[in-house]
């Protein structure tokens, strides 16, 4: 094996970390979300692995909240994104010289689905009690189940496991 520098010119996404990357169809790598230390992203970039060129598709539908530390998985032609984390800036409404910015955190528990053929985002309707909102977790497929493991919630790290039955899910916008 040999490392080499991939494309970084025109069309490449801005620098980021805590994003997700999934291979679609064996020839394309989809990048979603992440953070650059100042800005959170909810954009999608595609690296065509055959010609090593970037493109940014026009997506429609209910866009996911910008986030970092989410988990993603490919199911057929659908990119499934769950959870993540985002800091929100809220103005402090105080008097005198104590005005400033207060940072509050948002742990996310939504599931969004991007159809990689049409580039349309949708939400996933799920029954049952959802797992606690989290980031830094993983998603995997086992038969017809989506397995979620671990992550960080508002209070602590987790080693819990949750199973989502694919046939009991419904996409909606």
TrEMBL record:
Keyword Ubl conjugation: no
Any Pfam family: Kelch_KLHDC2_KLHL20_DRC7
SMART domains the record matches: Kelch
Source domain of life: Eukaryota
Segments traversing the membrane: none
InterPro entries membership: Kelch-typ_b-propeller, Kelch_1
Keyword tags: Kelch repeat, Repeat
Database matches in Gene3D superfamilies: Kelch-type beta propeller
Protein name, UniProt field: Uncharacterized protein
Source species of the chain: Strombidium rassoulzadegani
């Amino acid at each position: 094996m040999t490392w080499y520098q991939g494309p970084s010119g025109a069309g490449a996404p801005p620098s980021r970390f805590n994003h997700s990357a999934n291979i679609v169809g064996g020839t394309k790598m989809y990048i979603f979300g992440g953070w650059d230390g100042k800005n959170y992203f909810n954009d999608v970039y595609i690296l065509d692995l055959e010609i090593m060129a970037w493109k940014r598709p026009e997506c429609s539908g209910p866009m996911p909240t910008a986030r970092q530390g989410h988990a993603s998985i490919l199911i057929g032609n659908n990119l499934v994104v769950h959870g993540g984390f985002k800091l929100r800036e809220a103005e402090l409404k105080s008097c005198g010289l104590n005005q400033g910015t207060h940072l509050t955190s948002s742990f996310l528990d939504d599931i969004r689905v991007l159809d990689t053929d049409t580039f349309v985002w949708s939400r996933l309707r799920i029954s049952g009690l959802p797992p606690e909102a989290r980031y830094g977790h993983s998603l995997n497929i086992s038969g017809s189940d989506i397995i979620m493991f671990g992550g960080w919630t508002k209070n602590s790290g987790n080693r819990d496991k949750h199973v989502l039955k694919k046939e009991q899910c419904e996409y909606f916008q």
